[in-house]
């Protein structure tokens, strides 16, 4: 039995007690948010299996099964409703090794706690390892006996917005999107391709030049290492024009009227990394260094094309949750200002 199935059964069998504990925890975490927050947050929305469940993350986070016709299955989404019924949302995308049991923004960086007092809905899709949240052309792994059907762009921009609008009051046009690493790349692509949905985009240590010479080889190795994923299944052959159409470096024109924030650290170990194991340091340094190079390349081109953005290049920091989490905290007020969601 999978972790997700186990959580489902616990939630369904003990709905009353779990709900009571979750609401109590959420109310305690959100002291100062007022009764309006409780009114909008203390009831479970309907989903594809009957109703959402209270999530173990607390802070009024609900775990909802949202049906995806494109992928032919339910997609779990962790959702924290807006504190006072606001119609803005912040989509938070995961990294390359996204799990099927929780979005890392509820585990490795406590985004629900950061936004618990604010009038914005957090939308945290679960799953999609190595997907770059794209619509893939063919099964994502080499195991054709158990095909992995990735149609994440369709889900995030066509199917999920309908569900959020109907059940959480999220406006289709009033959204911000952010992500770390792979999620940062995807956030930039989705915002550029769907400016009518996303008013703001934030890339934290994303890879923003994915189809330039050499980068496809790096991507191929990364996807294979993440679980045997086939990069050719994403957009076709190496010469496919879809590779550049889904490369932030080449599709930045769609961000002309979007609030853009990009960041990447130097890869140099800082005081915040003192307790990080050596093997993680050795891995995190080159990964962040590559993110820094690609982000600066994107920034140079965007400047030459008149695309407005804010860039942050910390002097120290590796490709890890110390870096990603600090950027989430640093940009908290910016998100609320742009989305008018205090």
Automatic annotation (TrEMBL):
Superkingdom, natural source: Bacteria
Signal peptide per UniProt: 1-29
Alphabetical UniProt keywords: Acyltransferase, Signal, Transferase
TM helices/strands, residue ranges: none
Record-linked SUPFAM superfamilies: alpha/beta-Hydrolases
Gene Ontology molecular functions: acyltransferase activity, transferring groups other than amino-acyl groups
Keyword Acyltransferase on entry: yes
InterPro entries on file: AB_hydrolase_fold, Esterase-like, Mycobacterial_A85_antigen
PANTHER family xref list: DIACYLGLYCEROL ACYLTRANSFERASE_MYCOLYLTRANSFERASE AG85A, ENTEROCHELIN ESTERASE-RELATED
Protein name: Diacylglycerol O-acyltransferase / trehalose O-mycolyltransferase
Protein species of origin: Corynebacterium spheniscorum
């Amino acid at each position: 039995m999978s972790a997700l199935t186990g959580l489902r059964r616990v939630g369904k069998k003990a709905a009353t007690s779990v709900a009571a504990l979750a609401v109590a925890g959420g109310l305690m975490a959100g002291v100062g948010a007022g009764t309006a927050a409780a009114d909008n947050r203390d009831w479970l929305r309907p989903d594809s299996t009957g109703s959402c469940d209270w999530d173990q993350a607390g802070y009024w986070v609900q775990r909802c099964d949202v049906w995806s016709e494109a992928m032919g299955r339910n997609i779990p989404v962790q959702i924290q409703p807006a504190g006072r019924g606001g119609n803005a949302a912040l989509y938070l995308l995961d990294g390359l090794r996204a799990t099927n049991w929780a979005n890392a923004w509820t585990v490795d960086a406590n985004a629900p706690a950061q936004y618990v007092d604010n009038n914005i809905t957090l939308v945290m899709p679960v799953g999609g390892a190595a997907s770059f949240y794209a619509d893939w052309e063919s099964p994502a792994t080499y195991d054709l006996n158990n095909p992995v059907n990735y149609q994440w762009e369709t889900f995030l921009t066509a199917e999920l917005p309908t569900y959020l609008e109907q059940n959480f009051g999220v406006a289709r046009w009033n959204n911000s999107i952010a992500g770390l690493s792979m999620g940062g790349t995807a956030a930039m692509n989705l915002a550029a391709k769907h400016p009518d949905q996303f008013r703001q985009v934030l890339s934290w240590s994303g890879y923003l030049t994915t189809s330039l010479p050499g980068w496809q080889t790096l991507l191929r190795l990364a996807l294979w290492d993440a679980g045997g994923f086939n990069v050719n299944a994403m957009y076709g052959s190496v010469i496919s024009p879809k590779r550049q159409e889904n490369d932030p470096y080449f599709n930045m024109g769609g961000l002309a009227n979007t609030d853009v924030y990009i960041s990447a650290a130097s890869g140099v170990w800082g005081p915040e990394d003192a307790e990080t194991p050596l093997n993680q340091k050795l891995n995190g340094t080159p990964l962040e260094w590559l993110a820094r190079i690609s982000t600066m390349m994107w920034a140079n081109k965007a400047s030459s094309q008149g695309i407005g953005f804010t860039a942050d290049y910390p002097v120290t920091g590796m490709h890890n949750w110390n870096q990603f989490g600090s950027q989430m905290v640093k940009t908290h007020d910016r998100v609320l200002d742009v989305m008018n969601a205090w």
